[in-house]
Amino acid sequence: MSAIVRIPTPLRKVTNGEDKASVDAGTMAEVVKSLEVQFPGLKARICDDDGELRSFVNVYINGEDVRFLNGMNSSVSSGDEVSIVPAVAGGF
Amino acid sequence: MPHVKCLRCRECGSEYPIEPLNACEFCFGPLEVEYDYESISKAVSRESIAAGPNTMWRYHDFLPVDRELAIDISTGFTPLIHAKNLGSQLGLDKLYIKNDSVNPTYSFKDRPVSVTTTKALEFEFEVLACVSTGNLMGSVAAHGAKAGMKTMVFYPADLEQGKIQGAAVYGPTMVAVTGNYDHANRFCSELADNHRWAFVNINMRPFYAEGSKTLGYEVAEQLGWKAPDHCVVPGASGELHTKIWKGLQEFNDIGLIENLKTKMHLAQPEGCSPIVGAFETGSDHVTPVRPETLAKSLAIGNPAAGPYSLEVLKETDGTGVYAEENTIIDGIKLLAETEGIFTETAGGVVISSLKKLVEQGKIKRDEVTVAYVTGNGLKTMEAMGDFVEPIQTTPDYETFQTALAAAQKS
Q: Which of A5, A81, A88 to mutate to test the interface with B (most CBs of B within 10 A)?
């Protein structure tokens, strides 16, 4: 079994309109690598040159912000749901 | 909207057409409305603005919608009060309270929501939605009602009853989400991708955010076309802080005010102060926190505009300050007892933070200072706790006199 990544609207041009992707379990960094193989160009949209998440990208594993877990080293297990969400939302 | 050019990414500068979009597809940066300021400066003058309605719509030239289509329930142009009593207690001669708790739904949110509802109709949305810490959902429900739209409001389930009932009365679909605001916000960001709803603070955010600039314009106009020396602004996502500053800058840039040197201070509650935390450590990055604060309207642990709010603090030589949790109610009472204004917890945070800024020597006695009070105390009654101890009496003179004397002794 693999994990599911939910793709937000701003990335769907890169994923040919797909709103979900299936990836193998591993670390969050490995998940991003796997997404890049499936959808070339995706990584640069969400990560900076050092491979860290851009300031305006939030990533959640089963609803938990990876910054409260282990960042890009957080582990993604089979059956997990990963969300990539633009940070620029909500609040005031 | 004759003066609007496009949406532009604040990070990488990519341009987008005027559509319900909030994030850049290249870098996820926030999109902002880009105006033709030359055209605005030809259209407006102090006189033309002063001749406008006594609402926020007197500044329509600076907003991304058509004035004629505005969903206007009389928001804005709220009082700016010279707070002599509070000022005298704090040691400030020129302290002003911008009392935005007297808007139609009793918070400043009516400003951004009035703009967004208008824009949502223009985009032909049928559903107006939001994720809210309380004030926003009341405003969305009211404006949606006025506009004849369906409304859906999402909120963290542990919100104050006053805010829940105060929104429900307008007839929206109410959705209580388990967890805190940040959980609800993440959930709604994904919902917004899959439903054609105008989420005012998600896909409609670039238009929504513009409405809050009017809190900058108004203060400058009410001070006689002058910017104050200091603004003290409550901070949740940090967006209000950045937009008041943007409003003052726009007025300065097109010459409606001169010599802009306002210090833009940001006030957060101790139990949720990620922006102030970054300010204090000198970091450009805001590390999210899990909110634990009495000030639920400010309980956003992952502030969307945090980095820009930090920039404003730096650019204007402002200070990020937090109010200790046990001073929030003191702040509410102090404002009520000195100025006759009952604010909600966010206002308590502002007043207690203002006090700290004066004690730290950041604000001097003769400097013009504006404290923003953005929500009404009647909405957060339960936060006040059981603090009332009335004199108990039967309706006869002797009993009352005895009870009064006893109460005055204690």
A: A88
Establish if A92 belongs to a structural domain: no
Range of the domain at A71: 3-86
Tell me whether B72 touches chain A (CB under 8 Å): no
- What per-residue confidence (pLDDT) applies to A88? 74
Which has more pLDDT, B161 or B74? B74
A41 within a domain of the structure (yes/no):
yes
Contact A88 B28 (CB under 8 A): yes
- CATH number, domain of A78, equals 3.10.20.30
The shortest C-alpha distance from A26 to chain B (Å) reads: 23
Taking the Cβ of residue B78 and every Cβ of chain A, the question of whether any pair is shorter than 8 Å is answered with no
Percent share of chain B, pLDDT over 70: 100
Is residue A17 less than 8 Å (CB to CB) from chain B?
A: no
Integer CA distances (angstroms), B133 to B15, B69, B167, B217, in order: 31, 28, 11, 26
pLDDT recorded at residue B158: 86
| Cβ within 8 Å of A, B 173-232 | 179, 181-183, 185-190, 192-194, 199, 201-202, 205, 212
> Which of B161-165, B168-172, B232-236, B329-333 is predicted least confidently?
B161-165
For residues B181-197, average pLDDT: 92
Quick: pLDDT tens for B211-251: 999 999 999 999 999 999 999 999 999 999 999 999 999 99
Q: How many CB atoms lie within 10 A of CB B84?
A: 14
Q: Report how far apart, in Å, the C-alpha atoms of B341 and of each of B79, B84, B97, B338 are.
A: 11, 13, 9, 8
Q: Which of residues 349-368 of B touch A (CB under 8 A)?
A: none
A18 part of a folded domain: yes
Interatomic CA distance for residues B134 and A60, integer angstroms = 24
* A91 in a structural domain: no
Q: Are B189 and B182 contacting, i.e. CB atoms less than 8 angstroms apart?
A: no
CB-closest option in B26, B199, B201 to A91 = B201
Yes or no: say if B235 and B298 are a contact pair by the CB < 8 Å rule: yes
B304 to chain A: which residues are within 8 Å by CB? 87-91
Q: Measured between CB atoms, does A11 come within 8 Å of chain B?
A: yes
Residues of chain A predicted below pLDDT 50: none
- Asked if B136's CB is within 8 angstroms of A65's CB, the reply is no
Enumerate the domain spans of chain B. Answer: 1-43, 80-106+209-384
Q: How confident is the model at residue B133 (pLDDT cuts 50, 70, 90)?
A: confident
Number of domains chain A is built from: 1
| Contacting residues for B1 by C-beta, under 8 A, at least 6 apart | B63, B64, B65, B66
The CATH number assigned to the domain with range B80-106+209-384 reads 3.40.50.1100
For chains A and B, CB pairs below 8 A equal 107
Using 50, 70 and 90 to split pLDDT, how confident is the model at B93?
A: very high
